[in-house]
Amino acid sequence: MLKLYNSLTRRKEPFKPLQAGKVRMYVCGMTVYDYCHLGHARVMVVFDVLARYLHWKGFEVTYVRNITDIDDKIIRRAAEEGVPIEALTERFIRAMHEDEKALGCLPPDQEPRATRSIPQIIAMIQALIDKGYAYVGENGDVYYAVSRFKDYGKLSGKKPEELRAGARVEVSEAKRDPLDFVLWKRAKPGEPAWDSPWGPGRPGWHIECSAMSTACLGAHFDIHGGGADLQFPHHENEIAQSEAATGHPFVNYWVHAGFVRVNQEKMSKSLGNFIRLRELLQKYPGEVIRLCLLSSHYRSPLEFSEDSLRHAQAGLTRLYTALRGLPEAEEGEEGRIWRQRFEAAMDDDLGTPEALAVLFDLAKEINRLRDRDPDRAARLGATLKALGNVLGILTQDPETFLKGETADLSDEEIERLIEQRNQARKRRDWASADRIRDQLREKGIVLEDTPQGTLWRRA
Ligand SMILES: Nc1ncnc2c1ncn2[C@@H]1O[C@H](COP(=O)(O)OP(=O)(O)OP(=O)(O)O)[C@@H](O)[C@H]1O
Ligand SMILES: [Zn+2]
């Protein structure tokens, strides 16, 4: 049985959906004012794997991920570029979809956009006002009254009194309590605006997600995900809004992906320390980036390095090399054992590093059997491919992947590297010699030292 770490209870819990056999999942998506970076890629891939894995276990999954297509940063960026907001957001939504596809993610079942959900947002704000959880400030903005919601802080473990002590209030704001947050922002002249009972304006970020998730999945659903940065205040505020507005519990399992970091800092658009996914995709296949992301547990911080990508590249080459040249076969009885090992790893809070270790062991076993018992090797190959597919990898023809891998090394380059290695060996510089051999092996070039010299072949 799948166990998931639930940020709400702070422990791993057996996963039981509200409705037998069906899972409803909402994930906070991108604010579309720039290209996606590796942090976004992690959220995309982690929840894609969760959706795929639940599906593999027999659940019918509805996966919703929103698009925040109106917000201060978007407005500012569009003004800087001198383009209409919609042109800006369309450009980055399209880019996001391309990136996501390159990473091998299946599209979410629904992608609601804030600007297309205004009626639902207004209705929820109205419900909050009617029930006494929200008020119109003197400046015309609508605020959520945090003190009215007695469970505030249950997700983040933060206490309102302590938050209040540390809070700072901007003079321009009309909040009654420093913890109150905006639900509806009154438009300033020239800003994009939608009509509402409180005058023309636009929604706050937190209410968008409450309204869109409820509209798509109902008041109470199974899984809500996002990056760890969203736990507070975004998700805390979502709970306050939704539970107050609907009178129902909101979400059963809160799942948060750890940060992708650069020099110990969160990779983020606002910090400007981000590496665009599209740039990486020019150097590495999407599947390599995906494997790299899955090599760490989803809750651990992931320190980005080119080294980790190269490592993933070598790993994927190893897996495809095991599959290459195997005859077509159905999975056999023996595959069951491997499936069980894989499932045990994944059931433990989506243990993708351990699940990948199972795949690498399986690849080793296939290589061991390849010459001795090709049929058995082929049946295990079918299992390797099937399990890889649950993680969204090994989806290509091995030959195609490996050709792409070696395509950037011409015969001349290979010969040149071999010559360098021979020189290193003459100098008894074994470390350099081994490094060149490994480098070639990663590219799928196998060396064989014979009395006549070093021979090479594409593996
Ligand atoms: N470095 C990161 N590691 C993991 N997840 C991240 C990272 N950065 C963003 N996310 C997640 O990606 C999703 C989209 O986030 P969003 O578009 O608000 O990006 P952002 O880069 O955090 O923006 P900003 O830098 O302006 O705060 C959210 O679920 C968020 O938690
Ligand atoms: Zn959200």
From TrEMBL:
GO molecular function: ATP binding; cysteine-tRNA ligase activity; zinc ion binding
Chief place where the protein resides: cytoplasm
Sequence motif: 'KMSKS' region, positions: 266-270
Gene (name only): cysS
Listed Pfam families: CysS_C, DALR_2, tRNA-synt_1e
Coiled-coil regions listed in the entry: 407-434
Catalytic activity: tRNA(Cys) + L-cysteine + ATP = L-cysteinyl-tRNA(Cys) + AMP + diphosphate
Protein name: Cysteine--tRNA ligase
Keyword terms of this UniProt record: Aminoacyl-tRNA synthetase, ATP-binding, Coiled coil, Cytoplasm, Ligase, Metal-binding, Nucleotide-binding, Protein biosynthesis, Zinc
Any one cellular-component term (Gene Ontology): cytosol
A Gene Ontology biological process term: cysteinyl-tRNA aminoacylation
Taxonomic source organism: Methylomarinovum caldicuralii
Cofactors demanded by this protein: Zn(2+)
Co-factor binding comment: Binds 1 zinc ion per subunit.
Residues that coordinate or bind Zn(2+): 28, 209, 234, 238
InterPro entries in UniProt: Cys-tRNA-ligase, Cys-tRNA-synt_Ia_DALR, Cys-tRNA/MSH_ligase, CysS_C, Rossmann-like_a/b/a_fold, tRNA-synt_1_cat_dom, tRNAsynth_Ia_anticodon-bd
Ranges of residues in domain Cysteinyl-tRNA synthetase class Ia DALR: 341-402
Binding positions (ATP): 269
UniProt record similarity statement: Belongs to the class-I aminoacyl-tRNA synthetase family.
Gene3D superfamilies xrefs: Cysteine-tRNA ligase, C-terminal anti-codon recognition domain, HUPs
Subunit description: Monomer.
EC number(s) given by UniProt: 6.1.1.16
